[in-house]
Amino acid sequence: MTLILVAIAGIGEIVFVFAYTLAGTPLFDLGHLIAEVRETPKDYIWLYVMLFSTVVPTAIHFILCLFSLQSWYVIIPSLRQFISDKIANSPTSPFAATMIPFVIGFVWAVPFLGAGGLIWSIWMSAADSFAWFGGHYLDQMLRLAQWIEAI
């Protein structure tokens, strides 16, 4: 069913673009839009939000991937053996019974803290570069639009 819906959407898009091509009118005047963005960038904040809106789902998927990192502890034999021994000794040892929740929480927290630290360090070191990147991104989109003869 999903494949049929995707095929219908693709056919609809092809018909839509073909109709504009036959009419001889541009679907959207990219040259005017890019010129306006260069003159008054604050009026087109919606455009930046739209272009970078894929960051939110990507971040959510990245966080979900971090959940899988907690299972990597099985790769480290010494940590796996330590957890296994503490679980086996937990009925007789109060220390082992209290240590297991701490170790398992640590195994879950390390990927999140590591990723959070990495994201924070990238943000702090690259904050000045984002404006530079945005300008170059706009230039590349202009070149792409000129290359496909949209402007």
Summarize the topology:
Layout lengths: L1 H22 L6 H10 L5 H7 L3 H15 L7 H13 L4 H33 L2 H19 L4
Helix pairs in contact: 4-6, 5-6
List keywords for this structure.
mainly alpha, elongated, 151 residues
Tell me briefly what this model is.
The chain has 151 residues and is mainly α. It has helices at residues 2-23, 30-39, 45-51, 55-69, 77-89, 94-126, 129-147. It contains 7 helices and no strands.
Describe the structure.
The structure is a single chain. The chain is an all-alpha fold. It has a domain at 52-147. 79% of the residues lie in helices and 0% in strands. It is built from 7 helices and no strands. Helix 4 (55-69) runs antiparallel to helix 6 and helix 5 (77-89) runs antiparallel to helix 6. The two termini are 38 Å apart.
